[in-house]
């Protein structure tokens, strides 16, 4: 009689097999860029604050109609989190902890370090009227721990990286370290969902830092979509996606709906917010199910490679470019907007070509080298 291992046994307890390499979902790279451009549109024309100094007037005046749509741009972050949940589950499945850690550090840090140095240097120039952080705070920013340490941030968008890092840590401890399996991933999603709900009710800052109730549904939803990607008949996977969407839209509406605020920059509707969140979930799911496998163009891979460095540098350096083009050179707002996006994409290409490509494999190799 032959004894077979249970189908949900951890990978470590099964006979060693070659790790299945997932074919690249190029449409997912395109969706990444769409999410990044949503965030950029918000930072350039969908809010007040520092961008007003760059335009020397409110973006409402620069984009009388579009500013209302640009105001939905921050939901690009939630779409990023859904994509991240999917990708991290896919890349962490069957991978040892050391390799998982090395892949995440080597993916995040080279471009991040370069962006921190670049933005700090540009803001230190006498011709730039935006205030640079202190040298001490800039050095702390290199650790990516400025958010919990209460240090001034060099990059306005790096709060999302702190959320990503906490997700990586939870997934590594609960799934990667003991060995990924369908059962363990389902328990991870269910446990995190319950812990996030309890955290919301308990109002405890420490629990909030660990379980991130406002962002957890999006990461968990992405993980559920990966289960569906592995088996589209997985009822538990579909259940995780559905529950995550229902909870996630609630947090998105609670955070961004501002119809009751007469002083709001732009009044988002609750329906509009729900529709954008639904778009994120549906788009990632459709790509995971293979509905966009026909979109296999190589330029989408390039778009995916540019997304992360673009996301890092576009906000603060975009202020400088907008002021230069619109105020000093007198270009109209539409041309300024388009040229600023183009300039940030070009800078992202330079960072990818001369920072990420040479440093990422070297850093990964150094972190996985046997000691």
Features:
mainly alpha, about 375 residues, globular, disordered N terminus, about 0% strand
Plain-language structure description:
The protein is globular and about 60 Å long. It has 16 helices and no strands. It is mainly alpha-helical and 371 residues long.
Structural class: mainly alpha
Q: Low-confidence parts lasting 5 or more residues at pLDDT below 50?
A: 1-21
Span of the ends, CA to CA: 43 Å
Strand segment tally: 0
What coarse outline follows from CA principal-axis ratios? globular
The description of the largest β-sheet is:
none
Strand content: under 5%
Radius of gyration: 21 Å
* Oligomeric description of these chains: single chain
**SSE string, helices as H and strands as E:** HHHHHHHHHHHHHHHH
Helix content range = over 70%
- Mean pLDDT, rounded to whole units? 91
Contiguous helical run count: 16
